[in-house]
Amino acid sequence: MSLSANEMSTNRTTWIYEGVWGVLTSVFCVPRHAPDLPTIDAEQISSRKPSTRYISYLTFQLLLLLVVIAVPSVGGSIALAVAESQWFFAGTIAIVIVLLSIAVISYLAIHLRYDTTWYVFSDRSMRLRRGIWVIHESTITFENIQNVKVMQGPLQRWFGIADVVVETAGGGGSSQESGGGYGSHAGVIEGVAEASQIRDAIMNRANLSQTTGLGDESDEPNALHRNWSPAHIELLAEIRDFANLAAR
What we know:
The chain is α+β, with helices and mostly antiparallel strands. The chain is built from six helices and seven strands.
């Protein structure tokens, strides 16, 4: 069976893209598959990627950027043509080359960003990965989650996607890789179509983990206290002694 012109064009584009992927993965050691997440017992692992609409969203942003660059460039080229007509052709060629270079590099970057973005979930934690040149990978335990919210701008609403921002407890000078300027102690699940469902599922899992301890059922009356350090116990003893003195 012969292929249509559209199918041949699609196959050619896929072949070129896969070839570029092969070069980048070998040179920059870019991981393409979902990251591993340690599990215990019979924990179920699920992984997902952003919605394919996320690619359209990023591509539309690229087109807007090219328009912003092209408009003043064309205006400058016209002004140059009025002042020095002999430079008009060279200036136009230079503008086209620059715009095409930006478009090609950005288009590849958009798809590579999508391919390297993964969200992996277990019963106790989640692992988020994104990045091309610098790969960011962070692990968040459900027990440390304080709040989960959905963020959606006007352009995201148009494409039917949103970001799920997972806020964690701060402290210790460490920070989660956030992305998108959401804060240092936050993880971002970006470009998903089922943002509300993902938010609710994470909150349910976080509430269960904070009640039972990372999702492990326990009948011990003091199960929540098993992670206290000697420093915590000493501080609680000082608070108790102070309260007793104040009550006398």
